[in-house]
Amino acid sequence: MSQPAPRLEERFTYADYKKWDNEQRWEIIYGKPYLIAPAPTWEHQKISGQLHMQLGSYLKGKQCQVFYAPFDVRLFAKADETDDTIVQPDIVVVCDSTKLMRTGYAGAPDLIIEILSPGNTRHDTLIKFNLYLKAGVREYWIVDPEQKTVSVHILKNNEYTTRIYGNEDSAPVHTLEGLTIDLSEVFPEPLVT
Fold it and tell me: CB–CB of 113/141 below 8 Å?
């Protein structure tokens, strides 16, 4: 049986995380729990679906695999489960299948994509940016549905170099040679009411 939700003033590990209520989605960053917002907007889901579809089509029959949330990523995984950082990126591409776990991945993925939602901008652009840099995530995309832009961060010499693409651009995926994402297909048109 699941335990109640964590108290925000405490510090936790992956072993603790596995016991929590599965009805809520959580991340832990350096032991501190963060509740993930409930159901995302339709725009978020449309963007996620389009990105997943383009990545999945390219990766069909290849070694690397694409996954979408909920998908636990233990960036600094320890065998005894005392690691204290578990995130659930919107989209993850992994090329080392030996690090796949039953519910996620133990290590730094090759590519992580986060789609901004109201209320998580600081979390994704500052906290997770620095976290993914420290973990050695080779490529980190931040998708902004409001601005219709994608900030692509490529790891080079322990720093991210950044390039921003607009909704009419094709953005190359640096960790997947030969793949470009057609962003005109990614960002949805506004609903007509």
Answer: yes
pLDDT tens track for 98-114: 999 998 999 999 999 99
The closest of 115, 125, 131, 11 to 75, measured between CA atoms, is 131
Name the pLDDT band for 177 (thresholds 50, 70, 90).
very high
Domains of the chain, first to last: 40-185 (3.90.1570.10)
Phi (first) and psi of residue 58, to 5 degrees: -65, -40
**Residue carrying the six token digits 């919107």:** 90
What is the three-class DSSP state of 52? helix
List phi, psi (to 5°) of 103: -115, 15
Helix (H) and strand (E) counts in the chain: 4, 14
Write the CA distances from 191 to 42, 43, 188, integer angstroms: 10, 10, 9
- Considering only the C-alpha atoms of the chain, give the largest distance between any 2 of them, rounded to a whole number of Å: 53
Q: Which two tokens stand for residue 182?
A: 């057609």
Instruction: Give the span between the Cα atoms of 160 and 177, in whole angstroms.
Output: 18
